[in-house]
Amino acid sequence: MAGTFRFSFGPWNIHEGADPFGPEVRNSIAFNEKLKTYKQMGFDGVQLHDDDAVPEMNELSPEQIIKEAKELKKVLDDHGLQAEFVAPRMWFDPRTIDGGYTNNDAACRQYALDRSKRCIDIAKALGTQNIVLWLAREGTYIREAKDPVLATERIAAALQMMLDYDKDIRIMIESKPNEPMDHTYIPTIGHAISMGLLTNAPERVGCLIETAHALLANLSPSDEMGFALAHKKLWSVHLNDQNSLKFDQDQTFGAVDPRRALNQVRVLDQHGFGNDGEWVGLDVKVMRTQKDAVALKHLDYSRKIFLRLLEISRSLNEDMIAQMQADCDYEELNWYIIDAMLK
Ligand code: XLS
Ligand code: MG
What residues does each domain of the chain span? Predict the structure, then answer.
């Protein structure tokens, strides 16, 4: 069954351009102004960190947090937008310098658990059951820093706590092998999916695959997606692109390797992604050289590239491909795909 595609991104994808070596280069755009751009560019979904939704949330009571989140829900409704997911931003606070759930300090771990509950409250108020966990600092700089068995158990216990806290939510784990840590405990999508088995509700633990994160693990994004689809666990994606093994680049989708991008679009389309309400998320960064007035093109073009690749994929003659597969004539298949892309 063909896929159904609607698109989302997070407000962090429109940013001021600071990097570890230099300051901001563009003016800030207010959150409400960012929201206005979604529909104009053909996006219907908003991805949120908990503190994108409720800024300074650590200063607020749980009741105040819910109140503010409900106010945001009205704003999203006014713009005709839906919240896709909420993710706890667990990597900014002084208490999470060495991770949250896997921190060696019990008080810091408790902060991470409490923060996760507030994130769930926000998701509920925004009308989404989806919690994304990008486990940014759940890892180590040196292996001796933490016991990997204990760390895995602590992540599982955090998942269980969240699943128990609200029986409606489902958790989408976004794996990434490194950055900011040297190694993380959930480096690939196989790790993410298997974490569910350490809880009593694996049916509510799935994953979000980001292209760049798969590439940083030297894996094929479309095969990672296929693996997750076969497990019925691919509940969201973060499409972008990445030029080899270096820092997480979040380039415009398909900008580095259009064929690799075609294969991602193809596996999603051929396996009905989106038919159960899954979104195509784009996690793309603005090039630092873009000026203020042209700082949204990466989102617009990522979506357009997806749709162009979808057209190409759907124009392929599946009977011919099946014959070339049966004959193992992969040179012919190679040519057929490249030829279709170069037309
Ligand atoms: C960072 C991640 C981040 C998540 C959301 O590498 O991609 O942006 O998608 O927390
Ligand atoms: Mg991402």
Answer: 7-315
Annotated active-site residue 49? The verdict is yes
How many whole angstroms separate alpha carbon 172 and alpha carbon 291?
Answer: 34
CATH placement of domain 7-315: 3.20.20.150
Q: Is this prediction's pTM over 0.90? A: yes
Q: Which pLDDT tens digit goes with each residue over 148-196?
A: 999 999 999 999 999 999 999 999 999 999 999 999 999 999 999 999 9
Q: How many Cβ atoms sit within 10 Å of the Cβ of residue 54?
A: 26
Ligand 1 centre distance from Cα of residue 334 (Å): 33
Q: Please indicate whether residue 238, judged by its CB atom, sits closer than 6 Å to ligand 1.
A: yes
Buried b (16+ CB within 10 A) or exposed e, 170-196: bbbbbbbbbeebeebbbbbbbbbbbbb
Contact 299, 43 (CB under 8 A): yes
Q: Are 101 and 113 in contact (CB under 8 A)?
A: yes
- Mean per-residue pLDDT over the chain, rounded: 98
If you compute the radius of gyration of the chain from its CA atoms, what whole number of angstroms results?
Answer: 20
